[in-house]
């Protein structure tokens, strides 16, 4: 959601203005966060589908021994997750964009916007701008998940090092205790 500033009793949007304008055009009060509903819905859908599909695809790749748990596995799972996420999130993105940028009184709600789109344009309308969206989400997923896996690998190695050091200390301590008698 956007940040608002108050000046002389009026709220000014520090973003592009679409949040405040959409709130006013749809008869809602012009308060901070008035357009958060569609944005939160979209973010929930994207985050859930990215994380769940990445995990499932990676598990399947490893289960069927397609590749080992390395860069090609992470790249493939991330790219596939980006594609599936775009399929799932594109309708929400298109409805959100149309609803927030529409003229006053055109749609009563996001649901009304979606129903009107389906009735007037058919299901293809929900996938306008699919390719740019996929390129954005797909490339983001590759970067995010590859970096995540690298960090996870280093943390796991570091944890194993500490555990082996701890076990060595215990063994040495036990030996020293045995020799002290």
From TrEMBL:
Membrane-crossing segments per the record: 125-148
Pfam families reported in the protein's UniProt record: Mito_carr (PF00153)
Stored InterPro entries: MCP_dom_sf (IPR023395), MCP_transmembrane (IPR018108), Mito_Metabolite_Transporter (IPR050391)
Coiled-coil regions listed in the entry: none
Subcellular location, principal: membrane
Keywords on record: Membrane, Repeat, Transmembrane, Transmembrane helix, Transport
Bilayer disposition of the protein: Multi-pass membrane protein
Cellular localization per UniProt: Membrane
First and last residues of every Solcar repeat: 69-154
GO cellular component, one term: membrane
PANTHER family: MITOCHONDRIAL DICARBOXYLATE CARRIER-RELATED
UniProt family annotation: Belongs to the mitochondrial carrier (TC 2.A.29) family.
The protein's name: Uncharacterized protein
Native organism: Oncorhynchus tshawytscha
């Amino acid at each position: 959601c956007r940040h608002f500033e108050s000046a002389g009793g009026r709220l000014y949007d520090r973003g592009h203005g679409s949040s405040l304008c959409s709130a006013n055009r749809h008869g809602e009060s012009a308060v901070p966060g008035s357009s958060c509903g569609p944005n939160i819905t979209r973010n929930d859908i994207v985050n859930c589908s990215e994380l769940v599909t990445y995990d499932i695809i990676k598990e399947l790749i490893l289960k069927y021994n397609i590749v080992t748990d390395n860069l090609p596995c992470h790249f493939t799972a991330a790219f596939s997750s980006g594609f599936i996420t775009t399929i799932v999130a594109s309708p929400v993105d298109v409805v959100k964009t149309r609803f927030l940028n529409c003229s006053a009184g055109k749609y009563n709600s996001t649901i009304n916007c979606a129903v009107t789109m389906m009735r007037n344009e058919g299901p293809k309308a929900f996938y306008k701008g699919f390719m740019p969206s996929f390129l954005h989400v797909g490339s983001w997923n590759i970067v995010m998940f590859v970096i995540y896996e690298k960090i996870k690998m280093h943390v796991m190695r570091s944890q194993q090092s500490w555990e082996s050091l701890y076990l060595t200390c215990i063994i040495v301590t036990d030996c020293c205790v045995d020799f002290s008698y």
